[in-house]
Amino acid sequence: MPWIFGASVVLLAGLLSQLLLGRGVLTRVARGILGAAPLVAGGLILLLLGVVDGAGPRVALLVLGSGISGAIYVVCPAMIGEFVLASQRGAVISIYGAIYWRASSRP
Questions:
Q1: pTM of the model as a whole
Q2: What is the 3-state secondary structure (H, E, C) of 5-46?
Q3: Domain parsing of the chain, residue ranges
Q4: Residue 45: CB partners within 8 Å, gap ≥ 6?
Q5: What pLDDT band is residue 107 in, cutting at 50, 70 and 90?
């Protein structure tokens, strides 16, 4: 369930980011805040897992907290692409991808 919800969040975040940019919203808002705010909210929601009783509420918090945190993954490469020189863009995005892969893979 977290992955299904997370995939929906990623698609919606990308669409919303593009719509905001198309309407002239600053990239700090369309990508920075759109990526960071759900990440912080998801982390705060996951902190509640330790204080909530019952399997149902815990599953709901796990799905919601981990799902909305995925919005950062769709806007991060776009932000990197905006701030890094064109000659270094491929290398930096590859390094980001390697760090993301390593952090999400199991030892």
A1: 0.76
A2: HHHHHHHHHHHHHHHHHHCCCCHHHHHHHHHHHHHHHHHHHH
A3: 2-79
A4: 61, 64, 65, 68
A5: low
